[in-house]
Amino acid sequence: MSEEKEMTFSEAIHKASSSITRFPLIPVRGVPLMNYIANNWDSIWDFCPDPSDLLIATYPKAGTTWTQEIVDLLLHNGDAEACKRAPTPVRSPFLEIFSPPPIPSGLDLLEKMDPPRVIKTHLPFQLVPPGFWENKCKAIYVARNAKDNLVSYYYFDLMNQTQPEPGPFGGYIHKFMQGQLSWGSWYDHVKGYWLEREKRNILYLFYEDMKENPRREVERIMKYLDLSVSDEVISQIVELTSFKNMKENPMANYSCVPSPVFDQSISPFMRKGEVGDWKNHFTAEQSKLFDEDYEKQMKDVDIPFRTLI
């Protein structure tokens, strides 16, 4: 059954890959989203989850796939084979994604699954369907420091043939600062979930903490999900979700997506997974300009980000 599912998903992307283009962005309530998402917005907004569903929310390239894999392994008591039943986007559907047919939308995949489901989103807090909060669903949010997040997103936009052309890195910095990328402003995104985290019982994690002490963060996720697995299983999950192992795992590294869509010869989906790689990309002048703008945009909150560990 799972093999059939996996083939269906991969085949659908292969069939549609010839019609894939860089889709334009259309604002939805002021947030730029790819036209396929914007054109199907009503059905996304109306999605009503089961109270047992779990939402994993991030700004793009902030540790989403990593967190999805940790959660799936926790739910399957560290069983690596069970977590190879299908690629990540089939096991944990991407709520708002819509693509050219016959690629199934996130809503199509969710419709075929029984709760409890693990659901991924990049939507900022204000665009998350209200059913998640009305039904008191649990939500895990992962935030990554702005500079590393920007660099990772830049490389992703280079290889992802569905998002707008990123242009030169220097110009991309300005697009990031002005919130002109798919899913909008990083600043609004990290702040939106931070300000609602206690009221909505959101587990707010930092990518840098996960890199620094993955075991501690896996245990935090386990407790939040009211699960209990042995120390041995925790160790196994930490090992299975190391960057090296996930990069080599065909069910997690997005190798199921063909090169006309994700051209991994330009940049791998899993590129470096490091903290501080921004130092290899920002000039001193760009870093100063970015830091000054950052201070202005983040002055109203005190979120403990780290750009190095």
Automatic annotation (TrEMBL):
It comes from the Eukaryota. GO terms for cellular component: cytoplasm. Residues 51-301 form the Sulfotransferase domain. The keyword Nucleotidyltransferase does not apply. It is found in: Cytoplasm. InterPro entries: P-loop_NTPase, Sulfotransferase_dom. Pfam families: Sulfotransfer_1 (PF00685). Keywords: Catecholamine metabolism, Cytoplasm, Transferase. GO terms for biological process: catecholamine metabolic process; xenobiotic metabolic process. The keyword Transport does not apply. Coiled coil: none annotated. GO terms for molecular function: estrone sulfotransferase activity. Its EC number is 2.8.2.-. Belongs to the sulfotransferase 1 family. This is Sulfotransferase. It comes from Pundamilia nyererei. The lineage of its organism: Eukaryota, Metazoa, Chordata, Craniata, Vertebrata. The gene is sult1a4.
